[in-house]
């Protein structure tokens, strides 16, 4: 009987030593399995993102370069007020409008692009405010506004004021306020 108790005590001691040494290793294995599952999940999300990126890149590359150029004219990457002034000046010259003053001022805070045609709501845009004073006959002014409407550049005319000088001249003074958009 003494021998049986000794065997049982030795067996219990062996199990105790085994568990005390292996428990930290088992806990570490459990932690590593959890970490591996998180990494596998991140890897699968990364593969899905790469697949979506590749699909979008293929779509982008399939767009005709002429259309890409037109899109960049519609909503340029940055606020190039000088280029905008040149465009407006060229349109004015072709329409017979005499520009007296042309000013631009960047809006201080970007806005969501949800109300721009062709833009998604996630992208932001900024506004370049244009103030323009010019003289023109009514047909020339109408032609000028028609050309602005047909131009590729997104612009919202937010205000127009005009006055007519007394006398027999057909020349009117105009004040126009508009917003031109660019990506931020």
Report on this model:
By secondary structure, this protein is α+β, with helices and mostly antiparallel strands. Strands 1, 2, 3, 4 and 5 form a five-stranded antiparallel β-sheet that branches. The protein contains four helices and five strands, in the order αααβββαββ. Strand 4 (155-164) and strand 5 form a beta hairpin. Helix content is 53%, strand content 26%. The chain is rod-shaped and about 135 Å long.
List keywords for this structure.
4 helices, 184 residues, 26% strand, 5-stranded antiparallel beta sheet, alpha+beta
Compact overview of the structure:
The protein is α+β, with helices and mostly antiparallel strands. It is 53% helix and 26% strand.
Helix content: 40-55%
Order of helices and strands: HHHEEEHEE
N-end to C-end Cα span: 88 Å
Structural class: alpha+beta
Major sheet size, sense and barrel closure:
5 strands, antiparallel
Label the overall shape.
rod-shaped
Helical run tally: 4
Radius of gyration, Cα only, in angstroms?
A: 36 Å
- Low-confidence spans: none
Instruction: Give the mean pLDDT.
Output: 83
Strand content: 25-35%
Number of beta-strand segments: 5
Secondary structure: elements and pairs:
Blueprint: H1 2-61, H2 65-74, H3 81-95, E1 98-106, E2 111-112, E3 124-137, H4 138-150, E4 155-164, E5 171-183
Antiparallel strand pairs: 1-3, 2-3, 3-5, 4-5
């Amino acid at each position: 009987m003494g021998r049986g108790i000794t065997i049982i005590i030795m067996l219990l001691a062996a199990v105790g030593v085994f568990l005390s040494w292996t428990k930290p290793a088992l806990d570490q294995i459990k932690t590593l399995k959890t970490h591996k599952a998180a990494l596998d999940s991140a890897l699968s999300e990364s593969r899905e993102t790469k697949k979506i990126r590749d699909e979008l890149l293929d779509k982008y590359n399939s767009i005709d370069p002429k259309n890409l150029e037109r899109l960049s004219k519609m909503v340029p990457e940055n606020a190039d007020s000088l280029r905008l002034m040149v465009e407006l000046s060229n349109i004015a010259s072709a329409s017979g409008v005499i520009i007296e003053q042309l000013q631009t001022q960047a809006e201080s805070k970007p806005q969501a692009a949800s109300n721009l045609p062709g833009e998604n709501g996630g992208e932001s845009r900024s506004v370049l405010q244009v103030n323009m004073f010019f003289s023109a006959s009514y047909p020339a002014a109408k032609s000028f506004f028609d050309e602005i409407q047909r131009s590729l550049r997104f612009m919202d005319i937010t205000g127009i004021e005009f006055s007519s000088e007394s006398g027999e001249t057909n020349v009117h003074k105009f004040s126009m306020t508009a917003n031109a958009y660019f990506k931020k």
